[in-house]
Design brief:
Length: 299
C-alpha cells in the first residue's frame, strides 16, 4: 500500500468573497512526484500556503506527514522552496547552508554533504553573488533538504532555468523521490512536467478539475485525434472530395476524428493509398488537454 505524505480532503478557502480553493482533495504518496498546474490565480499558492501552515483553511481536512499543517511535527518533515529564493550575496554557499543547519539545530558538519548532493560542492566556497540562477536554485534545494524532509513543496522550481539546468534539477528531484520523498511542485512548463512527474493535478478557479497521469487525463478529456495527411502532388483536391471533413493546413491535410473512430478513419485514408504519401497520427497535446480542463468552468 502507498504511504501518503500529504492528504487533503474537501479543502475550502475564501478571501473576502473570492473562492481561492473550493472543495479541493488530493494526495501525494511517498516517493511520488506530483505536478500542480493552473492558470495565474487558480489557487496554487493558496494551496501551498495552507499545506505549509502559513494560512488556515476555512474547512476541510489536511494531513501533512501525519500531522496538522504548521504543527512542529509537520514543519520538521516539510520543506518549501519558493519561486524566487533569495540569499545574501556575500555569503558562500557553504556559509549559507551551515547557518541554516545551525538554525535547524542540525550539526553544521553535514553542510558540505548537502551541497555535494545538489552538485554544488565545487562552488561551496564561492560567494552566492557569483552563482548562476541554476546554482542559486540548487542552494535553495540544499537548504530545503536540511533535516531530511519527507515532503517537498516547490513553487515553480525551474522557472528561469535553462534547459540543461532544468534537466539537472529534475534529476536531483528524481533521486530525492527514489529515496522516498513526496514532491509537490507547481509549474507552467507543461512539456517538462509531463516528462518528469508521475501525476498531474490541474486547478482551475480554485477547483481541482483533473488529476491523473497524462494517459489518464488524455482518456478523460476524450479530445479528437488529428491525422496529418501528406498527399501526392496534385491529388489534394481528390482527397478533400473523398474525405469531406479534411481541411488544408499548410502543405498538408488535417482530418480529426474521435478516439473511438481512429481505426475506421485510418482505413478510409489507407483506401486512398495511391494518392497519399504519408499519414501521421497526432494525439492531443498536453496543451490541448490542459486547456480542455482548465477552461471547463467557463474560464
Ligand atoms: N491574501 C489574499 N487576499 C485576497 N485574495 C487573495 C489572497 N491570496 C490569494 N487571493 C486570491 O485567491 C485566488 C487564488 O490566488 P493564488 O495566489 O493562490 O493563485 P495562483 O494559482 O498561485 O496564481 P499564480 O500562478 O499567479 O501564482 C486569486 O483570485 C487571488 O486573487
Amino acid at each position: 500500500m502507498m504511504t501518503s505524505t500529504l492528504t487533503i480532503s474537501h479543502l475550502t478557502k475564501t478571501f473576502g468573497g473570492v473562492d481561492a480553493l473550493s472543495d479541493v482533495s488530493l494526495h501525494v504518496a511517498r516517493g511520488e512526484r506530483v505536478a500542480l498546474l493552473g492558470h495565474n490565480g487558480a489557487g496554487k499558492s493558496t494551496l501551498m500556503k495552507v499545506i505549509l501552515g502559513l494560512i488556515t483553511a476555512d474547512s476541510g481536512q489536511i494531513s501533512v506527514c501525519g500531522a496538522a499543517p504548521g504543527d512542529a511535527g509537520a514543519r520538521s518533515q516539510v520543506a518549501y522552496l519558493p519561486e524566487n529564493a533569495t540569499f545574501h550575496s556575500a555569503l558562500t554557499g557553504l556559509e549559507q547552508i551551515t547557518y541554516y543547519m545551525r538554525l535547524r539545530g542540525e550539526a553544521p558538519s553535514g553542510a558540505m554533504a548537502l551541497l555535494d548532493k545538489v552538485g554544488l560542492a565545487h562552488a561551496a566556497k564561492q560567494r552566492i553573488g557569483t552563482y548562476s540562477k541554476g546554482m542559486r536554485q540548487r542552494v535553495g534545494l540544499a537548504q530545503a533538504l536540511i533535516g531530511h524532509p519527507n515532503l517537498l513543496v516547490l513553487d515553480e522550481p525551474t522557472s528561469g532555468l535553462d534547459p540543461v539546468s532544468r534537466r539537472d534539477f529534475y534529476e536531483l528531484l528524481d533521486g530525492l523521490a527514489a529515496e522516498g520523498a513526496g514532491i509537490l511542485l507547481s509549474s507552467h512548463a507543461l512539456t517538462e512536467v509531463e516528462a518528469r512527474t508521475d501525476r498531474l493535478l490541474i486547478l482551475s478557479g480554485g477547483r481541482m478539475v483533473a488529476t491523473g497521469s497524462l494517459p489518464e487525463l488524455r482518456q478523460d478529456a476524450a479530445l479528437p485525434v488529428t491525422m496529418q495527411i501528406t498527399t501526392l502532388n496534385g491529388y489534394a483536391g481528390d482527397i478533400l472530395a473523398a474525405l469531406p471533413n479534411a481541411i488544408r493546413v499548410g502543405d498538408h491535410l488535417h482530418l480529426s476524428c474521435a478516439q473511438a473512430d481512429k481505426l475506421v478513419t485510418l482505413a478510409q485514408v489507407a483506401a486512398l493509398k495511391d494518392k497519399v504519401v504519408d499519414i501521421e497520427v497526432m494525439p492531443p497535446s498536453l496543451e490541448d488537454i490542459y486547456s480542455h480542463f482548465s477552461r471547463r468552468d467557463g474560464q
